[in-house]
Amino acid sequence: MDTITQLTGWEFAALAFAACLVGFSKTAVSGVNTVSLAVFAAVLPARASTGVLLPILIAGDVLAVLTYRRHAHWPTLWRLFPAVAAGVVVGTVFLTWADDQAVRMSIGAILLLMAGVTVWRRRRAEREEEPEAVTTRAGRIKARSYGVLGGFTTMVANAGGPVMSMYLLSAGFRKLGFLGTSAFFFLIVNTSKVPFSAGLGLIDAGSLLLDAVLVLFVVPGALIGKWAVDRIDQRLFEQLVIAATVVGGLQLLLR
């Protein structure tokens, strides 16, 4: 990726800030990395941005697993993985023919979709007294549906966070269980995507060189997230994230 060596100071600063947000999202508010996605796709070519961002996400996943490893719910993870694998395959097929414009438009549309999904989830959660059990037939169908969508969005745009957030919250997970389960989920899924991304040419020596620098900014973001997780005003922050996601999605669609 020749464009990586041509980054301006402001562009690198934007990517560093986005990498910091990745760390924060992994240990505090899942879904904030949709803002990082928009930043990476705005600074770098859309296809290239997914390959650069993936190792940074994995670094954040490792930190999240180290922080919340005792709180993962493995039955839920095993229920999701087959459907997610199918979604990843579909996303890989899409990336084999999609050009940069198609990927950019897809990322923008996915961001707007995820913003809408998040708003819908928050409003529905306010109306429901009890979440739907994941062991029911409807719960299993929902798990498969979210799994396929999550696999596709995470492969095409590294944007599976909001999908999985909606599923885990609707399944009744509390904060620590939510963070622990999502940490292992994304570490396994993102690691499994590396061969696909490398095979598509999205990860190469140039992208890894940039990753080696940007990954340093993930650590302070994760530490801030760990400190803030019990102090943050969740409702206000989600509103800000939704607004930023909408702006990022529109920017990509209209670019």
TrEMBL record:
<keyword id="KW-0812">Transmembrane</keyword>
<keyword id="KW-1003">Cell membrane</keyword>
<keyword id="KW-0813">Transport</keyword>
<feature type="transmembrane region" description="Helical">
    <location>
        <begin position="146"/>
        <end position="170"/>
    </location>
</feature>
<feature type="transmembrane region" description="Helical">
    <location>
        <begin position="103"/>
        <end position="120"/>
    </location>
</feature>
<comment type="similarity">
    <text>Belongs to the 4-toluene sulfonate uptake permease (TSUP) (TC 2.A.102) family.</text>
</comment>
<protein>
    <recommendedName>
        <fullName>Probable membrane transporter protein</fullName>
    </recommendedName>
</protein>
<dbReference type="InterPro" id="IPR002781">
    <property type="entry name" value="TM_pro_TauE-like"/>
</dbReference>
<keyword id="KW-1133">Transmembrane helix</keyword>
<feature type="transmembrane region" description="Helical">
    <location>
        <begin position="235"/>
        <end position="254"/>
    </location>
</feature>
<feature type="transmembrane region" description="Helical">
    <location>
        <begin position="208"/>
        <end position="229"/>
    </location>
</feature>
<dbReference type="InterPro" id="IPR052017">
    <property type="entry name" value="TSUP"/>
</dbReference>
<feature type="transmembrane region" description="Helical">
    <location>
        <begin position="51"/>
        <end position="68"/>
    </location>
</feature>
<feature type="transmembrane region" description="Helical">
    <location>
        <begin position="80"/>
        <end position="97"/>
    </location>
</feature>
<keyword id="KW-0472">Membrane</keyword>
<dbReference type="Pfam" id="PF01925">
    <property type="entry name" value="TauE"/>
</dbReference>
